[in-house]
Amino acid sequence: MANVSTTTASKNLSAKSGLSFLKTYGGILAGLIVLLLIFSFASPHFLKVNNLLNIILQVSIIAICAFGMTFALIIGGIDLSVGSTIALSGTAAALLLQHNIPFIPVILIVLLIGVVLGAFNGVLVSKLHIPAFIVTVATMGIFRGIAYITTDGVPIAISDKSFLGLGNGSLLGIQIPILILLLLFVINHVILSKTKFGRRAYISGGNEEAAVYAGINVSRLKVWVYVLTSVMAAISGLILASRLYSAQPNAASGYELDAIAAAVLGGTSLSGGSGKILGTLIGAIIIGVINNGMNLMNVSYFYQLIVKGLVILIAVYVDVKNKKRLA
Predict the structure, then answer these.
(1) pTM for this entry
(2) What pLDDT is stored for residue 150 in this prediction?
(3) Whole-angstrom Cα distance, residue 101 to residue 92?
(4) Residue 273 phi/psi, 5° resolution?
């Protein structure tokens, strides 16, 4: 009898979990399926395995950056400097490699640079109480300017084989950027959903005053969130520089908008307090599908910008409507 009760309870729990998953991700998954169907009819090359893997490969850089952006949005902030951080991280790696610094130290130094840039943003936002939008618009220009100054405005070729393998190599038949994407997805998902840090981020984004009364050091939390956001951007910068075989100071222009779009499409609220890493990954894949599909259809890049802008508007509109419905 006890076994029957346990089995029934397990089935009920599984059913509730399934319904919760569909409630959370059903809409965005339906949108992704519709896009897949549209582009599969529009181009016979779209649904080929190589092309689908190519989409994931292209998405990896934006998705990793968007993981960090998700944390920033959840606490009610934003980071518009991630595109410049990507460019600066790539140029830093190239300059270090030019001085014959080994691969592993280069990676560690660039990640440390990401920590410093994120801490700079975080301190300005949390300690000086400057709005995140203003801070990161300013540092977007500052970080990009440093990238131009250190490179004299010209690309720096990269020939180090170990570094180039980061973006172009494969392991067990799977491209390394995809493996890095999967690893960082798991890490960020665990941090956000299974740790005190993640719970505090949700609480602070939902109601900062209540978070302070609950004993959460919101100021310190914000600094660490911006550090995490910049480190994710630095990793994206390393992969992008490797894939391009060069560091380019004008690289990743507009990537901050793609990262925001991926997070918002995945259900992260621009007003803070809600968001999921899985949703962000699906949102990034949707952006990758749109880009790839339109490229296969030979749609002009200028029209692609319009489409992505409309996607962001629709996502924000849905977010606003959901907030009003839940209020």
Answers:
(1) 0.90
(2) 94
(3) 12
(4) 95, -10
